């Protein structure tokens, strides 16, 4: 099926030309497809992780959307990304794998989950949770979330780009949220 | 509204990305090979009597085979930079120079007397040949690995290997204009070894750096 015949293709053509509404519709249409594949492939995973993987895949589509050639069918391109990222995300949750941080754009939602530190008034408890992160991620959380230092200053001090900071913070907060959930009775 | 809906809302407000441009990427990759090779040849010069050497029908293969392999692997690399793309006939373009090189090697082995076969092999000649190709490959390999990250290969290790292959074969084609050892048993073996080393290193690097 050519792009012009595929409703998803039409939406992505418009999206790549800058139509944000078409892009939102495209992503909303793709999300259930991804969700279905994640559900089928990720049977061994906790259900609450499925949506995290769906988001990883949508983010991957977002970051690589310009690699689709509108002269070619959309579906093989789309399914190749979905398959690659679902497998990658599943593997990442099964064991630690390297993911280049620079490949993520600066659009990651840092406040995606409730702040896992909100309910942790006890300083020792916060330190204990942060102690389970790698030192760099812990320092990013301390600087940006606890001490509320300006991002630019933190970036200079830790020699990290704004994109790296945001991605590191995003991942650290997700990890903290998971750790905090595990601690709940 | 779910977090996924929130994510979609945020992503949809992002400006569109610049178009994926394989031609521009190819140009940068070719330049990354051509510039170090040209500098190398400007500083050290090409072999004496290059034109005369090319009258020997075997000698042009030293340059043409790696050049063809470099072009084919570049094509394949760019093709695989798009998710869902298939390698197609480009694989055969890549296999062609390899097959000719193997034929040259066996031909030379069969035609040469035993003492002549590996007469040119010495620590100095190996060091010069392997060292030069490896050194000349460093910059192009780094640039090509960097540039191909604009794509989205779903085969990071293979793409890494192709990046190394493109760089090393391109560097070899340039180096061959300097090299005076025309025995296929020498140049097929040692050019091939150097190319293989770069490809393997880049495959390992690609596995790490081309993930997305």
UniProtKB/TrEMBL annotation, chain A:
GO terms for molecular function: DNA binding; sigma factor activity. It holds the Pfam family Sigma70_r4_2. Keywords: DNA-binding, Sigma factor, Transcription, Transcription regulation. Residues 30-94 form the RNA polymerase sigma-70 region domain. It comes from the Bacteria. The keyword Membrane does not apply. Belongs to the sigma-70 factor family. ECF subfamily. This is Sigma-70 family RNA polymerase sigma factor.
UniProtKB/TrEMBL annotation, chain B:
Pfam families: NrsF (PF06532). Keywords: Membrane, Transmembrane, Transmembrane helix. InterPro entries: NrsF. The chain crosses the membrane at residues 26-46, 58-78, 90-110, 130-148, 160-178, 184-206. This is DUF1109 domain-containing protein. The lineage of its organism: Bacteria, Pseudomonadati, Pseudomonadota, Alphaproteobacteria, Rhodobacterales.
């Amino acid at each position: 099926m050519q792009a012009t015949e595929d409703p998803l293709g039409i939406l992505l053509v418009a999206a790549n030309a800058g139509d944000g509404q078409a892009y939102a519709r495209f992503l909303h249409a793709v999300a259930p497809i991804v969700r279905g594949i994640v559900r089928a492939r990720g049977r061994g995973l906790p259900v609450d992780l499925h949506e995290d993987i769906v988001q990883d895949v949508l983010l991957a589509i977002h970051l690589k959307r310009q690699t689709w050639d509108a002269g070619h069918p959309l579906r093989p391109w789309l399914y190749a990304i979905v398959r690659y990222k679902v497998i990658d995300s599943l593997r990442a949750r099964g064991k630690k794998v390297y993911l280049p941080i620079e490949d993520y754009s600066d659009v990651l939602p840092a406040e995606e989950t409730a702040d896992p530190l909100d309910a942790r008034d006890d300083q020792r408890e916060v330190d204990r949770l942060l102690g389970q992160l790698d030192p760099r991620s812990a320092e990013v959380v301390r600087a940006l979330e606890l001490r509320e230092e300006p991002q630019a200053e933190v970036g200079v001090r830790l020699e990290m780009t704004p994109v790296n900071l945001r991605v590191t913070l995003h991942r650290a907060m997700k990890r903290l949220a998971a750790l905090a959930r595990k601690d709940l009775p | 509204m779910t977090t996924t809906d929130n994510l979609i809302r945020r992503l949809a407000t992002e400006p569109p990305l610049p178009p994926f441009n394989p031609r521009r990427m190819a140009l940068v990759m070719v330049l990354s090979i051509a510039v170090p090779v040209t500098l190398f040849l400007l500083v050290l010069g090409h072999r004496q009597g290059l034109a005369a050497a090319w009258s020997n029908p075997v000698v042009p293969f030293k340059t043409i085979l790696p050049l063809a392999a470099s072009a084919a692997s570049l094509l394949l690399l760019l093709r695989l930079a798009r998710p869902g793309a298939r390698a197609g006939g480009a694989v055969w373009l890549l296999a062609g120079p390899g097959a000719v090189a193997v034929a040259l090697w066996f031909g030379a082995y069969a035609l040469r007397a035993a003492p002549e076969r590996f007469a040119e092999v010495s620590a100095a000649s190996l060091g010069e040949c392997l060292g030069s190709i490896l050194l000349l490959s460093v910059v192009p390999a780094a640039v090509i690995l960097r540039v191909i990250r604009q794509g989205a290969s779903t085969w990071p290790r293979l793409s890494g290997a192709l990046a190394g292959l493109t760089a090393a074969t391109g560097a070899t084609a340039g180096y061959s204009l300097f090299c005076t050892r025309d025995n296929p048993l020498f140049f097929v073996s040692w050019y091939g070894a150097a190319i293989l080393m770069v490809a393997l290193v880049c495959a390992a690097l690609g596995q790490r750096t081309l993930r997305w």
